[in-house]
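Tutorial handout. Part one gives the primary structure; part two gives the three-dimensional structure as tokens.
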Amino acid sequence: MAIAQEEQIGLALSGGGFRASLFHLGGLWRLNEMGKLGEVGAISAVSAGALVAAVLATRWKNLAFHKSRAVNFRDEIAEPILRLCSRNLDVGSAFAGLVVGPDVLEKHYEDLLVGTLTLGQLPSHPHFIFNACHLETESNWSFSRAGVDAGEIGIIDAAGVPLARVLAASSALPPALAPVRLQIQPKPFGAGSRTGPGSGSLPRTATLADAGLCDGLGLHAIRHMKHLLVSDGTKSFKREDIPPWEVWTSRITNPMHTALEQNRQLRVDQLVSDLERRDKQGAFWALRTDPGETARQAPFPISPGWVDYMCSMRTRLAAFADEEKKRLVNWGYIQCDLSVRTTYLEELPEPEALPFPEYDFSREPEGKRRYGKARDNRRLKARGRPVSG
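Part two.
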């Protein structure tokens, strides 16, 4: 007998630049070892999390599951994500977008990730959901094989929409990356349409931007599911993290950061409350969690300073050095393991080794990651280049 989707596992992947993509990869790595990745019924993703979900969607059919574990996870999932996070996408796309329009980022995703795959060609299982914010109605739109769940407007048939365009919309954060304008066909409603205040006058063009403006965690689309696994790769906004050259622009962006943080925290508080009351089952893990403050002891030694170090990594679609990538994967792996074994699968044994054992956390990070020479020298050294004096 098929299990109703509400009884299956829902996985949510937040935004947060390539930092979040790598953090999510570590969590997926551990879930696969636990034998839970293959049991996921729906994956709802936002922005950089959507990039990870896109890799899963395009390669799911290639995963070879043995005893509930994908034995080729590293080759099929991890390596493509690591390669993607070695590219610089945001600055070039932003400047090119001023000249040729917002299609540049879509072209990057087409070339690097998903090719010409459309929503209608997504796997039937798991149910992949890619979220974006519809600016005209200030609501979350969820794109999937079934169409677009457009809130009060209804269900829009979008089988022919390129996945690369949806990814571009999900990660387009104005003013840096321009919103994506999606042409909607006349008579858009399918058999599952709802009726609502806006259902009678749907415009033919939708303006879409980063789903983090509505739901930075991707939880809204799977809120009905009983089992929830949520990976949060965002970091708290701190005034001291602003570099000198962004002081003036920060006066514009600070209110947006504040609103996004409040939105995220409300959803986290509700999720944690549901888990504590046992209304939901599952686990929540976050980049900013201090492993030393969790109910279980971390399976690997973690020295002080690593939470600040990880949270100081940039929120961009820009290249990360090899060491940065592998540390973020390891960090997501540990956070996922601690959370799942604390609140969901309490009898699960500890992992034996990190995905990249050479980058553990037994020693304190070298100084603080801040804008300046010390941080730049570490990045240059990681890339094998000479450092400045």
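Part three, for discussion. The longest strand covers residues 127-134. The chain is about 35% helix and 15% strand.
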